[in-house]
Write a structure and sequence with these properties.
This protein has 611 residues and is mostly helical. It contains 37 helices and no strands. Helix content is 75%, strand content 0%. The radius of gyration is 33 Å and the shape is elongated. It comes from Ceratopteris richardii (Triangle waterfern).
Amino acid sequence: IHANLLKEGFIQKSSVIVEALVALYAKCGFLSKAAALLDGFFVLNTFSWNAVITGYSQRGHGQYAFECFERMQHVGLTPDAVTLISLLKACGSIGASENGKRIHDEIIRRGLLENNTILGTALVDMYGKCGMLTQAHIVFWELPARNTVSWNALISGYVLHGQGNEALHCFEEMQHKGFTPNAVTYACVLKACGMMQALSDGELIHEEIHRQGLLRGDIVLGTALLDMYTKCGALVKAHLTIEELPARNVITWSVLIEGYAEQGQGEEALSCYQHMKSEGLSPNSVTFMSVLKACANIRALEKGEDIHYEINARGLLPEDTSLGNALIDMYAKCGALTKAHQVLEHLSHRNVVSWTALIEGYIQQNQSEKALEVYEKLQSEELSPSHVTYGCVLKACGQCGSIQRGRQVHHEIVRWQLLERDTTLGVALVEMYAKCGAFTEARETVNRLPAQDITCWNTLLEGYAQQERSQDVFRCFRELQAEGLSPNAFTYSCILHMCSHAGLVEEGQLYFAIMLLSDVERPDLGHYVCMVDCYGRAGDLNKAVAVIQSMPWYDYPVVWHALLAACSKSGDSVIGTWAFHCALQINNSDDVAYILMANIYAAAAVENGDR
């Protein structure tokens, strides 16, 4: 059409035709051609300029929208409300809050907000997308008139920036003011529920959606429901929801597969993947990444290799770095480190996540020296290690006792001031020094941490306990209390386990008694088992039995296994037989109990000289 118009000379004769062509190109997404027409002809009204500016804004090209706006002003045109709405959208898409403020000032100067709710809503949306939530809130309440779309803009801003509580509060207020939520509102609020793991709120919203019949034909809302349930860990409800949806697509299935993979239910994730393919749906990169995570969780190497074959058949590698990283992680977790290395080598673009996944794989296979070699290669590519990378490398240093390299990493962490932002790195440093036997440095690291919590103290205490440095353990316990911290279940587990192995029965009794008297941390199953083991190792089986009889529950085989193990050392067949029968009442096919009972009879036979 354009060519014919040029041939016939109509374009030179009629600005109306030029405007129509500009609008056509803009709506079809050919924005460069539309912009070229604007530059080539003197168009006197804003309609054509708005078409191009709006086109750029809708496609997320905010910078181009502003460049076009500047040219529009250069030819002497004044922006109208449509122009300003598009520019506000552009500001939101690229986070240009300063430009947004200037447009806001222009709107106020010209008094355009008085009768234009759409323009006011665009302002709220812009501030929300730019993270200026207080300003979004102020503008919202200053609007002369509000509607459901206005409320949605405010709610989505809170959700976008992780303020789920504020979003839910806003949703409640919206209803209280008499506004009716629509599908967009519900989708936003469901995301907030997932973020806050507010399952009960999500279920109430689901009921309302069902009552209004909004799920019919709205696959986006259905996907939001699925996402909420998976984020809340309610996978059964998520599965029921997807079965009830009138239509499903690859996105809905991918959300469910990801939910199962995140919860460690790899078999269910793979089952959903097969179900999705049976419906004739083709997996995308997101689906593949979730399925690979599922394979990694259950160490399903063969299935992971099949997925790799599918990915290659679709030609998705080597350009998709995120997908490549998921493959590396799957192979690494399945112990196929050679294949993980091959995938990494063939990626067009390797990032720090790629290398970290491989480092983590070597650590899981106790190949710490290899992990450190990979770390050196990462550095040779001039990539900056992440918090996760440093944590993995410190673990590798602890595994192989490489304190010098550990100190170098510590220096890097301090140089980049990472300890102020990530307390887990402090814990990793303490653990590394403790594993290397450098307890002075471990203790100094705890002292220098910007924020000391029970986890870093537990890590130090555990290091002492593993070396059976009992006096250091007890001193560490007192010091953490002096810092105002309360010992937790793990603290007591470390102490009781050490007391058991070091034969410190009286000390074990003391700390167990402290737990029994505590209003904060009561003994759990593991602590009782530690005490049974402690008395059993000391040969005091009657006290071990007394501990079991004082328990609020007996129906855990591990307790009886601990007592049977103690009886097998002493050859006490009387208590052993009683413990054996108690174990069988829980599980008649308890193989461990049968083996331990056989050991008791063997020990008793040796004791009696009956060979």
